Amino acid sequence: MRQGSKSLLGGNGAAGYLAISVAAATALMLAGGARCWGWGQGGETWETYTPITDPSITSPTVSNNGIGINGEVGFTCSTCTDQDKHTVGGQTSYPWDTVTYTWSATVGTFPYGNTGRSVTWKAPGSPGTCTVKVTVNDLDGHPPPGSGSDDDDLKEASLTMEVIRLEKIRLYFSHGSSSPDDAYPYKDNDQFRTRAVVWATCTSYLAYCDVGFDETLTWWKTGLEGPGSDNDEPPAPETFTGTVEDNWPDNWPVLTIEWKRLEHKCSSPSDHSRKYWYVVNGYLANSWGENNRTYSDAGVGLHRLRATVKMHAGTAWEQSKISTDLNGDGVSDGNEWCLRICPKDPTIYVEPDPPPDNSAQRQHYLEWMSTYLDEPYEWGGEGYGGEDSGADEESASYVGGEGSYDGYGMDCSGLVSCAAYRAGYNWSPWRLSCTGLVGVSTAVPTPWMDNLVPGDIINKVKHHVMSYRYTAGTAPNRTFYTIEATGDTVYRRVVQRTRTESYLNTACTEHTPPHYYQGRVLVKSE
User: Which residues constitute the domain of residue 59?
Assistant: First the structure.
């Protein structure tokens, strides 16, 4: 039988048998399309059994694809598989091929590497959109001497990220009126609403307010601290102009907005060497604003509002802006441009009987004056101003210098000048000293203490001026109720106070001849 077999081999023995086997295997490969990379009994083939499964980016998703500039976020791809068919020696198996994940992005970086099912992507430093892509491939074992596998087509998945830059936050309030005389200051116990508006840029620069910003109302951004423009007039109320989006985009990172109430403090000196600082109190926690707010006390000191907005993703990254940052450097400007909400006191004017001819203007003047209550005193001051030079008296720095006004506080003649300006007395120049006020007023008829009318001033030239409200008691022990900016060590601010008849009769002997207080009637310039 071995001989017979030998005859079948055509006399060539094993060599002839090998030639036939090779020819047969080659024919099988050409006919069936199988790839054969190793040789043994019956041959070896690798084929695709199931292709690489389609990948998807499972985190983040289109529902949270917003990120702040320079922020970092983890990307995760779904688990992908690739199963091959392996035949050798007539035996078939279905092994799992190894797959790889490689990430790329149109902008931004992968600070910890770009391979693996999960990676970290860092957003660029400018706003816009970015496409992050993952490419899934298998191990290519062809041709030999590879490890052996079938080379499948690669698969890809991508997600468009929105990169956001916070620009600014500003605070506004509305009282339902478009007239500064009605809405600012407004009456004590009247209701108002506040709003925070946040500007941000992705593909465009837009303003947002998540609780609704009724653009048919007049929104005031009043109370700019510091001096007026070029010191030519007191800071004027301003209104919001523009368009506000009703909702912060749901797919962007969450914002938190914290409001603070600032109480202005000052140290004892009555000249420019005093210190200023704010005591910061809580106000609104994580809020875009409030409706139907009522202040039952007049005065600006308790109603300076400041807010900080933060856009963040846990501890991974954070952007922050503060409402008193005008130059965009991320911190409050020196002149604390906070939202100052100052109700006027409607009880401050006590109308006499009979009322004077200009009763309405006198009332307006005193009500405007009441909006400055609690404003720190500074010699030469003429506005609501007050810089924040520290967190408390110990850390605050001395500011200003003798003979110059630095945008801080209010003095006695500045208070009269500001209130008269707002009440429409139309003086030019509007800012006058105690001496200058003589030129825009007439003397109250003598005896002047008997003939004072609410809204008159009580002026001692080169010394002090106050505004008269009403009198209690009888001569010679009458008490005169006033509103004034005083720099004494007791008050050091704009206050309502009482003056005795004996005090008002006291001479100032620093001058020759001595100066005395005198009642004067303010005169409107046409």
Answer: 43-153
